[in-house]
Specification:
transmembrane; 196 residues; mainly alpha; 8 helices; 2 domains
Amino acid sequence: ERVVCSVRHRVMLIHTAAGKCGDRSIMIPVVLIIPSAIRLLQCLRQFADTREPKCLYNAFKYTSAFPVIIISGFRHFIDHDDWVFFWRPLWIGFCVFNTCFSFYWDIKHDWGLSLLGGGAPRRPGEKFPFGLRERRIYGAPKVYYRAIWLNFFLRISWTYKLASHLRHHSAVLWLVTAAEITRRFQWSLFRVEVEY
């Protein structure tokens, strides 16, 4: 988002851009919302083509990021007491909902695991471990259980990236971005496993 802001204001040096593209720039939440908005539109298009309700639930997952980004973006324009007693608890609630719903979606729908419910019940004599599926490429159940926990904690860290009012620590922001890249790479491995 800072790159977009720098280009918009025609400044190339980070210290020059800081005055126009700092933590209080309204461009930060605008740019942060674009990926979720694109995925929302893709899900709605997929629903229009297939009429599968699952597409609407997936669209809702992306929509649930909007309040997190918008409320965070307006943090610097809200009275401190209003922020502390109303908006911050509301923002935290939206963060928790978005994180939990996205985590659930990753595990249940994208990875096809029944750990969080809704999967076919195991019949007596079935050999696959609790919450996993019978067909697994990566073998050992502990690989899946570790991936599930890692996905959960990395989902939580991603909230920091969505919060424009917390973005003044560039080293932490870099670490969170690297963690999200790791999460998405891991996600893709298990997603491909389900599809093929």
